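re: ur msg from earlier - yeah i can do the 3,4-dihydroxyphenylalanine complex, just paste it... oh wait u already did. ok heres what im feeding in:
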Amino acid sequence: MSDPIALSRQATAAIAKAQRVEELEAITVDYLGRKSGQISLLLAGIGKLEPAERAALGQAANEAKRAIEAALAERRAQLETSRIADLAETEAIDITFPGPPLARGHVHVLTQVRRQIETVLESLGYQVELGPEVETEWYNFEALNIPAEHPARENWDSFYFNPQLLLRAHTSPVQIRAMQRIKEPPIYIITPGRCYRRDAPEATRLPYFSQVEGLAVDEGLTVGDMKGTLLFMIQSLYGKDRQVRVRPSYFPFTEPSFEFDVSCGICGGMGCKSCRHKGWLEVGGCGMVHPQVLRNGGIDPQRWNGYAWGFGIERMAMLKHDVDDIRLFYESDLRFLGQF
Ligand code: DAH
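and the outut:
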């Protein structure tokens, strides 16, 4: 074809029909390509023409070229605009649309058990008292009648920051702090909280765990008062069929001292695998507060006496829910935690 006007008409028609940028590129090569584009081919023969015709054809060819370029640019812009409009349509995010609902969490089983213990004892008039987890050597040991070099210290080996400061090994130091704060008996407090010991993790122990300590200071308290209180607590938590018993033991801060057992809920005290055929499960220690401990708390042992206990919260939760490995409480495995 040798007519630039016809060429440009043909090209602009093809450009108007193109739906994709790739088609426009093919058209560009086809008409404007430097070697074999139709405009170039047209101009290739121009040398053979008369000068006047040559000028006219050259001009017409240039106009055709410009017209094709302009049409290409315009169509390219149209295609880009509609591509973006399509994107906005298909990939739009409606930020006002409500997201998927969050799964609902619930209170950790150890927190549940702690709160149940608190609720039961608060119903008897006990107040919740809290103490620091970083404790001085004096509160953790000395004030509880466990002097330096006393072999009993080995039972509560903890983590030391320096010889005077450690992570408390039990909640018992809060007994002293509570007596010092409240000053005037009657004192009826419980103190739940985290404790630390230098033990390797295993099924029944961890280097961190929780205890709930109880302390009553009043006039003329007896072991019977203590046992009755603890029986009420255990039966409130585990059911009326549970029995409790105390066995003589030794703690430097109580005199007399006892281990405290609860009858096994699975065999009812007959003996089974879960209680290792004893019929009883050990929950913690208790006893009548040693007069020196009262004195260290600023209380006159001539006039007042008291009882105290310290139980492991994990152990109470294990008893309640038949959990056989204490580590499960801290592994954050939702398959375990979701059961409570
Ligand atoms: N503090 C003791 C321990 O961690 C438990 C204990 C025993 C606490 C007897 C008491 C008590 O208050 O009277 O092993």
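cool cool. The chain has a mean pLDDT of 93. ping me if u need the other ligands too
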